[in-house]
Amino acid sequence: MEVEFNEQIIADFNSQVAPDVNVEFSTYDWPVHVAELTTLFASGSPPDVQYLVDLIYPAFAEQGVLHDMTDLVNDPEWADERANISPFAWDLAEQQGGTWGVPVLGAVYNIFINEALLEEAGLLDSWDDSYESMLAAAEALTNDDVFGFAARTSAADFAWWDWYPYIHNAGGDVLSDDWTECGLVGQDVVDAMQFLIDIHTAGVTPAIGSLDNQGLFDLFAAGRVAILHHETPNIVSLNENPPGFEWTVAAAPPGPQGHTVMGNFGILSIAEASNNKDAAWEFIKHWASAPQVGRFAEQVNLQVVRTDIIGDLFADNPAMKTVQSELVPRVQGLQPHPQILEALQAAWPVAEDAFRGNLTGEEAIAGMCAAIDGVLAG
Known about the structure:
With 378 residues, the chain is α+β, with helices and mostly antiparallel strands. It has helices at 2-16, 33-42, 57-62, 70-73, 79-83, 87-93, 115-120, 131-141, 160-169, 187-200, 213-221, 234-240, 277-287, 290-300, 318-327, 340-355, 361-377; strands spanning 49-53, 94-95, 98-99, 102-109, 111-114, 147-150, 225-229, 247-250, 262-270, 303-304. The protein starts with a helix and ends with a helix.
């Protein structure tokens, strides 16, 4: 389907912008995308334009294989378009003394709730008042057939997306503000980690490691999870195969220092090795334009980072409209450090061990910081 949708964008580009430019679309295999992209860049003839997610984009920028697009994105003739892209998205793209791409889309990590279960228990309007309210609701809803709460816990499923909001809500982050050391500091961060340990050891979740990403979602769709951390592309499945109960999307409850949402975003970049940089820039401007990116977002159920078309999207998809209009404005993205993925991967075994009840919040944060600082030290 993605090939078909991109072919529509290419057809419009040829008919509206550059009839003589031949654009060929290809995809990479997500499970091995880092290795595949590394090989393409090392070949000396990578695709002129790449869609890179923010977890890997900084590392490729540091390697010098991406073209510095600072002058392009600051062209006065493109100023109005630039202004329509949210500042938080530019924070991801602007780093290491340059701007290496144009942010276009994102996948927001939301909570799915089974409204029927929560309403029956009289908790629909209060489950997300606080972390304590969510844990109490999960305990009240758990029985032999239903788990009150579920979230990803494995690095293979990128479980840190479900962990991030609680850390951000506590005023913490993976790295310090100057990116020189671990940023998981302060009692609020320790308390947030302890809460996550408590909810995973309270008997309200599936056994740690017993279900993968898809398995958790399937359990929710079967009516057997009341509160599920997951991601917006699964809204498609719920719309196409209604689960037999009322459901909706929500954010994690507010913490002591914020009420944030986590998102993972994609950026269109130009390869430094490209011999067609002018044409590549014209294509990126076209792809990122409101008509094109808006249509594509609706087709694939991803979120836009443009502020000028939010009200026009997802008119027939209430859940996606809620995500786009209410959750995206709360997004706090990851820090675009070249080693951010490595830092998360290094720290995550400690978090997973803690979720099994083997560490306290204080011990877990200390262990994660040791792993992160080890990565930064090289």
